[in-house]
Design goal:
By secondary structure, the chain is mainly beta. It contains one helix and 33 strands. It has one helix at about 5-10, and strands spanning about 50-60, 65-75, 80-90, 95-100, 100-105, 110-115, 120-130, 135-140, 145-150, 160-170, 175-185, 190-200, 200-210, 220-225, 230-240, 245-250, 255-260, 275-285, 285-295, 305-310, 315-330, 335-340, 345-355, 355-365, 370-380, 390-400, 405-415, 420-430, 430-445, 450-455, 460-465, 470-475, 480-490. It has an eight-stranded antiparallel barrel. The chain starts with a helix and ends with a strand.
Amino acid sequence: MNGTVRRILLTLVSVVALGALVACGDSGNHTPRTPVGGNNAGFSNASLKGNYVFSANGATSSFSYAVAGVFTADGAGNITSGLRDTVNDGGNQTLNEQIKGTYIVNQDGRGQVNLKGSSEEVIYRFVMQSAASASLFQISTNADAVGRIELQTSVPTQLSGTYIIRLDGEDLNLNPYGTIGGLTFTGTSITGTIDENDAGTFRPQLAATGSTVSPALTGRSTFTYTTAKGTHNLIAYWVSPSRVELISSDKNFFLYGDADLQTSVAGTVASFAGNEVIKTSGFTSNGPILETGRLTLDGTGNLTSAIEDYNEEGVYYDGVTFGGTYAVDATGRWNATLTYPTSTLGLVGWQVSPQQSTVLVTVSNRPNYNIVETGTMRAQTVGLTAASVTGNYAEILSGFLVGSGKAESGGNFSANGAGNLNGTVDSQTQDNVSSNVSESGTYSVTDSNGRGSGTIGTVPLRVYTVDANTLYMISTDSKRLYQGMMSKQQ
């Protein structure tokens, strides 16, 4: 894949939520207007108070890059202190950088934070799901990135337990790379098992060993793990004893991701059963691919009621049904074979809990396909209707317009329980910023399996309900490779 195109598209690989775009408001202005108006969801500057871990990944015209850090918000619009680490796939790094800044939170949860360090000032637009979490995108004339803000509840002093790690990025030759696995921390020692996919070459169950440095008061630490395929050095920002955000400090192996404490395991096929929603993104040898769908693990090793929607480099496939089989072991590692009319895909996942897994697409029987995808699988509540979806929701979407460029947006929408949305969005498309744009939309939950349809402005969407609080979305317009979600604001 051409290096410049690959960099432009890399933001699709591990976006927690991807987005729908509008072009109105103060388009062309790179210093957006203060967020105003919108629905009253009860937010204010006081909603952002405490220590917050933030992370983002994206691309400039020259590099793919990632940032992770922590800042302290005073509840009155000031970032009083903070740290950040920024790395890119050209080997450039700015590490342990002190930051300060300002922020504003609007009544509907939309906001803006300006973080200034010795290297540069970075502006992020965000939308809050709650006082503990928000999704963000970067505003810049030469950079596009998406990520999240998470309230830091406490910093562990002694690390203990198995963490399910997921990393995306690029290998030494700038090829797409993804890895997941279970790493067990015992004090400063690490052992575990890693599954990785490097440019379509799957390497299963690599034994891993390593070591870690206990977190500082800021929550920043480092750790290293080694497999037969190499060593990775990571910078970690601890959100809590059960969650950490990660970026690589290796100059020639660009990675970013996270890890979650494994809380419980369904270690048999019979216990690992139920309805699930899957959302993945990544690359094939043809270009970027986005997939959103659902399936049922039937408790006997078969996949039933499986359907998905996906977009592969501007070719959209609507309502593709498939079958398959799955297996699971006592560590919570599971694998599945997805069977389509003309191909099969291998899938590997690790359970954070029986209700939440990370997934890694592994192999295809299509010659020269070289698929690399990562994503999430979450337990699904079925039997919902449009009436189940009501109240204020944070919307975040991103992706790119085929032939045009990158785009991302975030907003607040009020769902009326009858299929209508009304709200306000902020977006950036090809470096043009639109702020405070009033927008309407629709949604439906038409199938018993939680699959429906909708719109955000003029963007048509396929909707999959995870539960009444979470809706996954993918654009059905083949030229808009957008994927995202709506999360009920708390």
